[in-house]
Specification:
Layout (H helix, E strand, L loop, with lengths): L5 H43 L4 H28 L22
Helix pairs in contact: 1-2
Amino acid sequence: MEEDDPEKEKKIPNAMKSAAAIMAADILVLLGFIFLLFGIAKFLTGFFGIEGIGEGAVGMALLIIGFLIIMRSRMKIKFATMPLERTGAAPPSSEAPSESYR
């Protein structure tokens, strides 16, 4: 039977605390980013004096950034799935090893 490892039991709560701290930090960063975007939108609306221009500009910038991220990730996937170049060597045999290997 498997014995309980006290070190393993200590690591699990630490990992959960770490995951909770990372999630809390992610939420705070997301909220900070949202407030920053609202602030930029309000500033642009006040600067240009046209109602809604700031929200439109920030939305357009986010769409462009999102589009670029999607295109970049698709390029990485495309390059990752491309077959490797052949070196001219013969392909490995699919036959079972002969008796000479034993």
